[in-house]
Amino acid sequence: MSKKVSILVGSLRKGSFARKTAQNVIPMFPADYEAKIVEIGGLPLYSFDYDDPNETDCPVPESYTQFRETIKASAGVLFVTAENNRTVPACLKNAIDIGSKPNADVAWKNVPAGIISHSVGKMGGYSAHKNLRLALSYFDMPLTGQPEIFLGNSPTMFDEEGKLVESARKFVQSYIEQLVALIEKNPK
């Protein structure tokens, strides 16, 4: 039985560098892993009314339930994100909030996770990466340590076919190996 890894892309644009990075990462996982992008763009904005038992006219959207179950069934999660205005993109923060409820059944709890951030500038999404790491630490998620991945000047990280250039590919591959080791060390 393969171990499922959910990849959440912090960009909704089809041709985004975050999505290209995620697509390049999928084949880097071992053969007994099934890594795939979990789409988050269609998730309604989070409102606690959905999870408030006193609110009877706000049923939990089916997309919330499916998303939460997907995360809970994952052996690990990989966040691949851009940086928007020096923080986490809204779509990714929304997904994190959705997975954080209900309080008695948090989808993120104890799920091993890794983060790859990028930006078109030199900082490589540093602020988004650190904000995301801070948010995830609240859920007792085992997180990868060093090295952290900040892909600066992300347009230069891809060749004409959309593949990671060799130097970036090797670095990202070593990070995926680190994430796999974390997942193996923290089975669910």
TrEMBL record:
One of its GO terms (molecular function) is FMN binding. It comes from the Bacteria. One of its GO terms (cellular component) is cytosol. It holds the Pfam family FMN_red. PANTHER family: CHROMATE REDUCTASE (PTHR30543), NAD(P)H-DEPENDENT FMN REDUCTASE LOT6 (PTHR30543:SF21). This is NAD(P)H-dependent oxidoreductase. It comes from Neisseria chenwenguii.
